[in-house]
Amino acid sequence: EAQVTQNPRYLITVTGKKLTVTCSQNMNHEYMSWYRQDPGLGLRQIYYSMNVEVTDKGDVPEGYKVSRKEKRNFPLILESPSPNQTSLYFCASQTAFQRGPSIDTQYFGPGTRLTVL
Amino acid sequence: DAKTTQPTSMDCAEGRAANLPCNHSTISGNEYVYWYRQIHSQGPQYIIHGLKNNETNEMASLIITEDRKSSTLILPHATLRDTAVYYCIVSLYGQNFVFGPGTRLSVLP
Fold first, then answer.
1. pLDDT for B60-72, tens place per residue?
2. How many Å lie between the alpha carbon of A28 and the closest alpha carbon of chain B?
3. 3-state helix, strand and coil shares in percent for chain B, rounded to the nearest 5
4. What does the longest C-alpha to C-alpha distance in chain B come to?
């Protein structure tokens, strides 16, 4: 089954304790992305990657890092989490560099609810 | 900022068609219109997308006006499970989405 998986699904942590949220896709997609969703602010893009070793900032990258060492994985790293990073996080993936009605869609993961105390 | 505007909320009776409008007056010639929905706090789910022609799939129909400045998503027979927030997004390649607040559709029994 084609899917995007995220781990953990729920995480409560404390300020300053480094954490990593993993994202993996099994569709051989080149493009992957991270979004955060906050009440009243909707979904906003944090970082994206067009392919292995190619990453770029989205609209709200401050306080986050990403890496893309393998095509299937795109972890989100919070080196020193703060309470304002409490949010619902979504990873997404898509085939890049091609067009077509069946492959233009972006697939989203189930989400990771992060609470930073 | 989001490049689309949608009504904040809509109601629809179960079994009736739900017609969700979207304005995208600044869409460029090669940008597509995408529709996604989000049920509770699940990951957004793809519904349909199109460029200029009307599109239909097993979930919905998409009607795009001739000038491409607006579109309508049609759920032909809404069920309670269609209650969700619906997002209309314009994008060149279906990447780097800018999400607006969407339309909260409530399907009523």
1. 999 999 999 999 9
2. 16
3. 5, 45, 50
4. 40
